[in-house]
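Hey everyone, long-time lurker, first post.

I ran two proteins through the pipeline my lab uses and got sequence/structure pairs for each. Pasting them in order. The first:
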Amino acid sequence: MSAAVRVGFCGIGRMGAEMVGALTRQGFAVTIWNRTPERAREVAERTGAVAVATPALAAEGANVVFTMLTDGDAVLRTLSADDGVLAGIADGAVVVDCSTTGAQAAREAADRCAAAGAGFVDCPVSGSTLVAREGKLGLMAGGDAATIDRVRPVLDALGTVVHVGPTGAGAAAKVAVNALLHTFSTALAECLVTARAAGVQAASLFDVLAVGVLWNRFLDYKRPAFTDPEGAAVAFDLRTATKDLGLAVTAADDAGLTQSVVRRALELHRQALDDGFGDRDIAAMTTWFAAAAGPTEPEGN
């Protein structure tokens, strides 16, 4: 099946690059486009994909075209520009959007694809770059079941697919997942700082978590980053996390919530961005909390 399916992929950031690698290792022919051409060429050399100059060229001849972009506006521009995906896509091909956009942008993208004779699946992913490299992402798919089944052989190369509902449901599920992720990671950062002030080192607190009910895969792969936030490579930057929390607050408003834990997490992230933390990993919230607290000594010292 992989040899007969051609894949276009637009947006080769940290996650996109690992997803392209997972697809090429499974034998898919992948054509890639990125806003920064040098990035596309570097990933092409590493994965065996073919880099092209425009989204239209990435879509040309493809059965499935992925978009993995910054936000909903970027997705809509990449679809509808004069040299965009829909200018090159064939009738009956399917666009699979893995970006974090929110449900309304996903529905708008679906309408534009339908007008161009293409199918659409909103299919954001959950997992780290390491998980993406291993082809073990969680994929939350919104859309028509028959359309999802048409692209399932490609999606299966990336991880486990859960059909969560109609168009927009995948995007909505991702907003909920990331709201939980970022409120959890923010609370973790705060607790690491407060525990350290009382004499508990980060590594010791992680040892306690590892033998308790709260342990999960996120804590497992993010342990090095949270125990050494100054030395952590950027896997998920705080600026993107703040964007995701903004989408989550919009979802809370749409749901009629008058109180929101997520809104407070967004406020804290915005303060961290104002303090220059935007390009750092989400684990750097630990450093931000510590800096906000000022110098402390463990109790009893």
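...and the second, right after it:
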Amino acid sequence: MNTRRTSILGAALVASAVFAITPIAYAGTDAPDAGLTRFHHQRVEWKSCQHGTDDTEGRALDEAGVQCADIRVPLDYTRPRGRTITVAVARSKATDTARYAGPLIFNLGGPANPVLSTVPLARQGMGATGAKFDIIGMDIRFSGRSSPIDCGWPASWLPRSAGTDRESFNRMVALSKDLARRCGRTNADVLPFATTANAARDMDVIRAALGAPKLSFLGYSQGSYLGAQYIQQFPQQAGRIVLDSVIDPDRPGVTILSDRTVALRREVALRQWAQLAAQHDDQLHLGSTPERVLATVQRVYQAAARKPLHVGPYLVDDTVIPGVIVNLLIDDSEDNALELAATVRVFEQAADTGSAEPTEALATTLAGQLTGRNSVERSAATAVQCGDTTTTRDVETTWRDVEAARATAPLFGPLGSNITPCTFWPNPPQQHPIRIRNGVPALVVQAAGEVNAILEMGQAMHRDLSGSRMITLAGARDHGIYLFRGSNCVDLAVNAYLATGNLPTADLTCTE
């Protein structure tokens, strides 16, 4: 995990929405009247991770010495004696027992990215610092191996754009309505309980079941909000907390996608890439000036709006292209820049000749958006996004937002402000989000040039966590820094905090 970019973090920041009220009274107590005693004192049965002969991920975990368990938690924490569900966890035990620091749960965002298979990578990436911890991967409720939600989606809405005009937007309205209907038909009874606040409560059940007085946490992207929820609800149980590439805690859920500043930063990042592509026009052949490169992008975008492009077996229209591009602007690495150039060339060839074959990476991306390949992951992520917020249920209001965003960010404004299944969600959340305001010590890490979880979001989290310190990585665009960027300055500072529990004496700016 200490390479420049790995596949396990993923590209898209998925987050959002409304302001909230105070924590629910029962959170963070082991008292019998909370009804949680049987969960806190359940016996954890560690076992093989492999489920059947075809479970290659489970076999790999077993070979790495990782143990797995299913932790039982309430479906509804306001009715803890009612229906229960299971949350899957995997543990790599601490090897530095002389300096044992307890369990550390890590989360890769999504907000429902499965993480169990990545526990060995986390162990390897954290090195001597991680050796002090039992490293715990948790597939949050309804994701991965934790009794997953699958709405049977034939395609994905994220990252999809409202496109160039009302006709394209109407296609996204129809898709969003269909996806919401499918989730309601198969999972209506559990959708109200798919929230980050409940996932944080599950974390504390895991802590208690493990017999640990404190729980440390490392969370990326949307996982930063999970960590913030935990320390808000369970401040006395919070151990060493690292939040990387964080979202604004006052805007959890889906509506953060429409942040106008994010759209503008993405337009700037695209221009920066166009400058690089123009400097290497002899190799990339997209245009000899940044303006010509951007004109090429605009030309294929408009061509896809007139008629979907034939790219391998896929039909790529104007609702697809902006999201494909954004996924390749996630960092400023040469690999991503070259892959974006190759992707634009594929689109250009399809527009000019009628068809083109995708690169391997593009084929994977298109399969994720235009088929049911990622239905389980996208269903769970959307359930949490819709559960973490309330959003407008008026289509015309959303259309006006799209048009307003388009005026300042023509390519990426309609991407962020697009309609989502949450507009038509069958079972809206039953509880208000919990407002994040506390003085619990935590370390916030952010890249100054981020185009998904932008710097201002990290600064907002830092303000709301008044006991926190912030590390800013200047001159970088990465989404996911600690262990991923390869910044000695960041990694040393984070490792020092995790090793000792002592935050930096002041905020820190790293240059690399």
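Reply from user beta_strand_b:
Welcome! Quick read of the second one: The chain has 17 helices and eleven strands. Residues 35 and 71 are 16 Å apart (CA to CA).
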